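One chain shown below:
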Amino acid sequence: MKKPSICFDKSIEFSLAIIKCTSRIAKEKHEYTMTKQLLRSGTSIGANISEGIYAQSKPDFIHKYSIALKEAKESSYWLKLLIDTNYLNKSEPENLTRLNNDLINLLSTSIRTAKENLKKSNSSTK
């Protein structure tokens, strides 16, 4: 059994916040385009992290986490649009942006470390 992942736990927290937020905006403000994009990218982060946790190899792990990072960066874009168009409540942007930035930092660090470890293991086998 794999040990718990801070990255995965944070992605679940972010996904739940995104689901609640986008559902509210769609219901109250009838905005569907940006909310569907944010819902897709925001929940995709955790799915890719989950795949990465059970990756078949270190390069596969790096690939899955890199996709998760790209989805987190895309989520930043949709969050910015929703903030700038005032679709988010005053309390929502800070929490969502913080969670997303935490994920970006965790993913970036995990990818960097995995690449360094891969490089070390490749150089030690030569």
Q: What stands out?
A: The chain has one domain: 6-118. Residues 92-124 form the longest helix (33 residues). The CA atoms of residues 6 and 106 lie 8 Å apart.
